[in-house]
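User: Can you predict the 3D structure for this chain?
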Amino acid sequence: MEKRRTRWKEFVEKCSVLQWVLTFLLMGVCCVVLMAYLMFTCLWLLPTIYIIWMLTDWDTPERGGRRVEWVRNWTMWKHFQEYFPVKLVKTADLSPSRNYILGSHPHGIMCAGAFSCFSTEASGFAQAFPGMRACLAILAGLFRLPLYRDYLMSAGMCPVSKPSLEFLLSRNGPGNVVVIVIGGAAESLASSPGMNTVVMRERKGFVRLALQYGADLVPVYTFGENELFRQVLFSEGSVLRALQTAFKKAMGFAPCLFIGQSWGFLPYRTPITTVVGRPISVPQVCSPSAETVDHYHSLYMEALAQLFHTHKTSCGLSQTHQLQIL
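Assistant: Here is the predicted structure, written as structure tokens:
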């Protein structure tokens, strides 16, 4: 009986992760196709009404969204978290009277750690940081897709656009935790088992935003993220790498060729540990100079490197592992 229960538990965990992978890869396209198909059926009135409503609701994603705690607390997300498992490690308190920008590293292929820790309650964010509202900032274009936009907002996600981030940091009160995957699509192309590479030396916009609105900066590193999939890496200068780069510039995300276990879609069962570092106090400067931005950007990079080296051995890496910052 115990063996059967264990097999059933493993099956449920795999199903929860599989639906997440397929949602990540296909749900946006499927929603667009579904709406287009219904327009040519006897149900044409439904998509018509939805599109009219969507146009009136167009700016909601950039005005704090429409999070639904019930969605963030789905039992399915607990099975998702237990599959790897995902662990959230807190190193310092965050004050509900302040706003914060969390820089999440590395991107990996699908940001499994960031999703579990900041877009669901499966990893215990609300218990670890009481009074704080986490919002994972993702590709803004996804919020222009019918139906999919509502699903994303219900999990507390927001567009990684200037109007959206400014709203959360200035007109949504205190206690906001805006999570930005700094490396973005460029970092996903460097995702591979054994690699600890982050892309951020020339990415300073999040620091300027923090200064303009007096939001403290917090480095976050997710150990195990790059071990979830095996990616086919193309060398710099190759035709295929050039195509990936061109696609990334045009669409905002990179087409990665990867494989996992069990039909190639499921990520490997590798423990994921998301470590939230200590806040870096940032003053409010309406028009920060380049020197000021560079100063706090350097402080952030130093804090990220220190966070990595402090926790790498407890998270399964050896002392010889180094963090490469590009």
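The radius of gyration is 20 Å. The chain has a mean pLDDT of 92.
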